[in-house]
Design a protein that fits this description.
Oligomer: single chain
Largest sheet: 6 strands, antiparallel
Structural class: mainly beta
Order of helices and strands: EEHEHHEEEEEEEEEEEEHE
Shape: globular
């Protein structure tokens, strides 16, 4: 299935999130480039990176954007061209890109009886130097490169503790089966490695790939 590439600055993005303005991300992205790894293959994610959290923008985001909540600044770096999974949190996530990348997004309301058809997924270009808020109801996962071979580096801002160890719960409803980590509800495609790690298989249809021909 071919994906039309839309922009985070477009009207169509407004139901998924908003562009973040009024912050100086230049030192943050410089630290991301200088102090975090960029794998040649695969993706590395770290929820909290001290080299990013020691910068002044950390306090600004905690106090201004998250209204005083404790937050974490981590990163997602690597090479990826596949959807694989979609996740959501109980709060917004802020993504700040050091390189052009593509966000594959859907809406929580589009999940029906524990399944989401990947035909509902849309692709948005997040340009280098830009930050966006993804609303709590926006399904997302690791970014993709602008082309299948392109590497990307993205700062990930979330409430502290998100994406760490899964709490021990007794399942009481279907959504409980999707809980994969702290504050992380995950729907995997059957072809995704996460499915083999016990993730709930909730994505139906094609496991989408970025071809570099999206326009």
């Amino acid at each position: 299935m071919s994906l039309a590439l839309e922009s985070v600055f477009s009207e169509s993005f407004r139901s998924y999130g908003q562009v973040v303005s009024g912050y100086d991300f230049v030192p943050l992205l410089a630290a991301l480039r200088e102090k975090t790894p960029l794998p040649e293959t695969g993706v590395v994610y770290l929820p909290s990176e001290p080299a990013l959290e020691e910068l002044p923008v950390y306090g600004e985001l905690a106090n201004r954007y998250y209204g005083g909540m404790p937050i974490q600044l981590g990163y997602c770096n690597g090479v990826n061209d596949t959807l694989g999974c979609l996740e959501y949190h109980r709060d917004s996530e802020v993504d700040i890109a050091a390189d052009d990348c593509i966000l594959l997004l859907a809406r929580q309301e589009e999940i029906a009886e524990g399944k989401l058809d990947t035909a509902k997924v849309r692709a948005f270009l997040l340009p280098a130097g830009t930050g966006v808020e993804l609303y709590a109801t926006t399904l997302h996962y690791a970014p993709c490169g602008r082309t299948p071979e392109s590497g990307f580096r993205v700062v990930i801002v979330l409430p502290r503790g998100t994406n760490t160890g899964k709490p021990a719960i007794q399942e009481g409803n279907l959504e409980d089966r999707w809980l994969f980590a702290c504050n992380k509800w995950l729907l995997a495609h059957a072809e995704a490695p996460e499915a083999g790690q016990g993730a709930y298989v909730g994505l139906t249809g094609e496991n989408l790939h970025i071809t570099g021909e999206e326009k």
